[in-house]
## 1
Amino acid sequence: MISQKAKYALRALVALARAHPRSATFIGDIAESQSIPKKFLEQILLDLKRHGLVVSKRGKAGGYALLRPADTISFGQVLRIVDGPIAPLPCLSKMAYRRCEDCRDEGACEVRRVFARVADATRDVLDRTTIADAVAERAPVRLRDAVG
Amino acid sequence: MISQKAKYALRALVALARAHPRSATFIGDIAESQSIPKKFLEQILLDLKRHGLVVSKRGKAGGYALLRPADTISFGQVLRIVDGPIAPLPCLSKMAYRRCEDCRDEGACEVRRVFARVADATRDVLDRTTIADAVAERAPVRLRDAVG
DNA sequence: ACTAACTCTACAAAGTCAGTATAGTTTTGG
DNA sequence: CCAAAACTATACTGACTTTGTAGAGTTAGT
């Protein structure tokens, strides 16, 4: 399960991607439109800012905007910032490898070998899917629906 | 990240699968060979027993054994017992669906659509891989190593 | 009967999650 | 200039989860 915080972060980024890229959007507006507690969202956006995903402008006409184009921000990046490593085992994380304390021989670990496949499959989706993809993807419209 | 408990459960089942299927194995032996705290492992095995994965025999010559053949016990089943739903969002769980509290329209949720692909990929591995597969799989031996 | 094994319930320390609270700082409009 | 609106930063908290421990009870082999 991904955290509520990660869901909020992704929804906020999608909202920013939909918003006009030139002008900043108020935290309050995002919070309201996405049903996110405002003070909590402040923390999240601040974190995303520190990691270079968004920019902010202070003051009365302030707000947030994407720093980079939406098609360069992957779901994987966001999750790693907000939730930490994506890998199901610490010993499978490429970004934050940590040995399993109680593992005698990593190469022989059956559990690790199976979850390596899970990790690869997961990364395959999350690192290839961007905020832009999420915005663009519509629920697949069947031809019969589109026509008739 | 899967829990420590799930790792223990899987390692214990792998150990039981490797053990002679006719005779029961002591908790103590599994605990020692797998470096699992014994009292903790007792709880885990009891849970797996309640869910019909293993059988136990009490008394001095007691112990645990797999109830079903190792190739009928999937990683997915074990994880669901020990860690709960596998899906990254409650609204994507097939076994334990729960609506996301703050989601206006599930069909339009961009986050959900992306994580549905993650969930499918994850289930594809976990529900198709059994304890028997884990036992059988050796680290891939390259021909040159096997030969020379 | 003794002992070694499983069974069951309760408890607890530490950590995580999902926010709240509070006190700034910066910018703009008037 | 100054007040309001917006972002920044840190601390705190209550509920829950995780990872075990503890201890008493039950069963069965010798």
Note: Residues 3-5, 37, 39-40, 43, 57-62 of chain B lie near DNA strand D (CB under 10 Å from a C1').
## 2
Amino acid sequence: MKNHQIAQIFRQIANILEIKGENPFRVRAYERAAQKIESIAEDIEIFIKEDRVKGIPGIGKDLEEKIREIVFKGRLQFLEDLKKDIPEGLLDILKIPGIGPKTAKLLYEKLGIRDIVMLERMAHAGRVRELPGMKEKTEENILHGIEIVKRGQDRMDIKTAMDVADLFLAKLKRIKDVKRIDPVGSLRRMKDTVRDIDILVSSEKPKKVMDVFTTLPDVKDISAKGPTKSSVITKDNIQVDVRVIKDSSYGAALMYFTGSKEHNIRLRKEAIKKGLKLNEYGLFKKDRAIAGKTEKEIYRAMGLPYIVPELREDRGEVDLALEGHLPKLVERSDIKGDLHVHSVWSDGGSSIEDVVLKALGLGYEYIAITDHSQGLKIAGGLDKEKLMQKRKEMERLGKKYKDIKILYGTEVDIDSEGNLDYSDTILKDMDIVIGAIHSGFKQSKEKLTRRIVKACQNRHVDIIAHLTGRLWGAREPYEVDLEEILKVSRETSTALEINSFPQRLDLNDIGCRMAKDFGVKLSINTDAHIAEQLDTMKFGVACARRGWLEKKDVINTLPFNKLKTALS
DNA sequence: GCCGTTTTCGGCCCGACTGTTTTCAGTCG
């Protein structure tokens, strides 16, 4: 999958061109192309093979050439040449909040600053304030920004973000002049990772909201405070922005701040085509507002059905909406059970009974207890004898709790050669078998792919769990040939998991979309290790929705009798 | 660099806040 690599190269080019002061629209063209290619759920090499690169919106003759060069040579001469003009370390400087291309260029040209380390030294020495348009305050802000970058507070997982947002929401809701309030930005779009928390408020007394917000006890620093918009850093070094707007514009502002930026740009262009103007205050015909109070009203006024936040990425949703063909996305309430849960029998913290009770509370029809297999000693994997004991326990609980089917299963380890950690005789007695990789992450893409393919081909394996092994903040995904795996899963009717654990969310949204296009089914599981974690299902569902999945694409939306057939 | 139901040239989304400025450029989302 070269898509990611191409996107990265294009982004680097965009940054360098920006610093060089090139035409901003040329810069945008590279950024747009990067975003587009990254969101394509198909390997770009297939586009080349089938000569369809030109058909990708935002890719013209020149960028097509560059894509071909990257795919065939693994590098791009144009970028290599650009790097001769601008030191690579200068690109890191752009990550510092408050510093953009113009400042980076100034720092480089006037002070010879080539990276963050040099910048920090110069700022400490008071040299930055010598530059035009910069004084002590600017210097201070730069040093402060460097601290933030150093702490590595780049992005957080969605659960962390949601917890912080809930905290602020709860406190701001108490202000009686707050009329409506919502989290917006990538959090509302339920992106798997989030950079900062954005909150939108409607109120007739914006100043009061700003005053309360910036003086909350969780606030450590105020980075900006205006009459309608403020930005703070929490004690956990998370940036929270609050924007206050009049209630009559709330819908427009909700759309605007929810984004994505690309979706907004696309909508504004559609508005222009219709002789309208869309901004954060409303949809306007000449100077008259024709919509703005709710999102639905604005979409309708533009001749579009409502587009849910999870779809707003400019990955084709606007065109589908125009045609009236938006998918009807899977919902949390469609989920009838969780198929990947651990208990105290392996490395979990809850008894099977606690898990069952929690599942009953969620209204599930079935719940699978899938503890680790014998070889995975570190996770308390079960040997043959333990398995028999566990089975007895499950049978006992099955009699006690008649309102829910308790499925006897395992998360069986796929070893470094692709063999399973239990014999077929053991596996054939299981209600459900999940195959997963827990070691050998550093193997080659080919070898990892072969292991998974081999596991899919075992007739007892129903689901492959956390396919790429990524753990946000801890482990990068390992590379697999997703298309090859999708082909085999389709042939063998093996489902792929969407692991709802917030640091995993694996497959991710783009992977889900690709699986759907291949006709592969998915299973949204929590991989819970304590009963409470069954609640993380919402994150997996969000991931599925971002991947355009519908109810029919997800096996654990099936009622038990149909699921049983699907698993057999 | 892309793109075309005004167009193969001349556009390309739009507004708030900061820090420096006396009217605005740069940055951000």
Note: The radius of gyration of chain A is 26 Å.
